Amino acid sequence: MQVVSALRHALEQHQLTIHYQPQFSARDGRIIGAEALLRWHHPLLGQVSPEEFIPAAEDSGLIVTIGEWVLRRAVRQMKAWLDEGMAPFVLAVNLSTVQFRHPNLPAMVATILAEEQLPPQYLELELTESGAMHDPPAAIAVMDQLHEHGVRMAIDDFGIAYSSLSYLKKFKVYKLKIDQSFVRDISADPEDRAIVTAIIAMARGLGLRTIAEGVETQAQLEFLREHGCDEIQGYYYSKPLTAEQFGRFVHEVE
Ligand code: G
Ligand code: G
Ligand code: MN
Ligand code: NA
Questions:
Q1: What separation in Å is there between the alpha carbon of 88 and the centre of ligand 1?
Q2: Residues with Cβ within 6 A of ligand 2?
Q3: What domain of life does the native source organism fall in (predicted)?
Q4: Can you list the residues of the chain whose pLDDT is less than 50?
Q5: Torsion, Cα of 134, 173, 32, 47 (10° steps)
Q6: pTM (2 decimals)?
Q7: Which pLDDT score, from 0 to 100, does residue 162 have?
Q8: Cα Rg of the chain (Å, integer)
């Protein structure tokens, strides 16, 4: 409860910010996306990880307000970057399972895009595999609506939950994000290599793109590239950056 009131205060006192982690084409190393990641700087506690406060925000329902704030801020930033003439890429925003189940979600997303004047093709929404598989028929309906609004979906942390592959086929999903836990030991662990190779092959067969998260080394990058992974995200290229740092980063690599 204390976390929740502190969070409510944080939202009012502008302690929340968004960092952006660039995503790269595995083929040519160009920036093709960015993931928005929420940050809380508490005046006494310093940086508080979303892993610590998102569960409390979900239990209290405050995540709906926070999630809407994140989406609006990130969409507004993306619009500003495009208006400045930055080369286009797709902005990915995380959705909590609680947000995803909220009946107003598709309308909320459409309203924010319209008000901020960002064309929907620049937005991707990430939902975890467990969130998608919690109630697959309901998830299909929500994804269909988002798809109708022109927004694409990615399945986050893919591979660690139990995925019903027959449902995966029915989801209007554009991309699978291969969980970091499989990428970490990809150079040494034959089982992780087998899992990653299988996810990429399955995604290919289903017409889905793949992105590997948590890529930190050249060896990981090369394995993923050789096995047909489409996109790369991780410290090897860049950690999550402030909006200002992100702007400079794009400028330097262009
Ligand atoms: O960037 P970092 O490693 O601190 O993120 C930790 C976790 O918090 C990740 O699982 C990430 O998906 C989640 N997260 C970051 N930003 C958001 C957000 O805006 N909304 C939700 N629901 N989760 C987020
Ligand atoms: O939403 P998701 O659970 O995918 O959040 C991604 C998380 O992974 C964020 O907390 C981000 O800060 C973190 N992250 C991004 N790149 C790397 C990386 O190369 N290594 C590690 N260990 N974490 C990373
Ligand atoms: Mn994510
Ligand atoms: Na993830």
A1: 23
A2: 21, 37, 94, 156-157, 180, 213-216, 234-235, 240
A3: Bacteria
A4: none
A5: -10
A6: 0.97
A7: 77
A8: 18
Which-ligand-closest: CA of 65?
1
How distant, in Å, are the alpha carbons of 95, 179, 188 from that of 156? 10, 7, 24
Nearest alpha carbon, ligand 1 atom 15: 37
Give the Cα separation of 243 and 153 in Å (integer). 23
- Residue 205 CB contacts under 8 Å (≥ 6 apart), including other chains: none
- pLDDT value for 26: 97
Q: Which ligand is nearest to the CA of 178?
A: 4
Interface pTM (ipTM) of the complex?
A: 0.96
The candidate with the shortest Cα–Cα distance to 200, out of 224, 232, 172, 236, is 224
Residues 183, 164: Cα–Cα separation, whole Å:
22
How many of the other CB atoms lie within 10 Å of CB of 9?
A: 11
Place of tokens 């909590």: 96
Residue to probe by mutation, ligand 1, list 48, 54, 128, 158, most atoms within 8 Å of CB: 54
**In b/e form, how buried is each residue of 18-28, taking b as 16+ CB within 10 angstroms?**
bbbbbbbebee
Domain 2-253 class in CATH: alpha beta
Q: Can you tell me the distance from the alpha carbon of 79 to that of 122, in angstroms, rounded to the nearest whole number?
A: 9
pLDDT at 2: 86
CA of 116 to the centre of ligand 3 (A): 22
The ligand minimizing its distance to the Cα of 58 is 1
* Residue ranges around ligand 1 (CB below 6 Å): 37-38, 49-51, 54, 67, 70, 94, 96, 240
* Atom number in ligand 1 closest to CA 93: 19
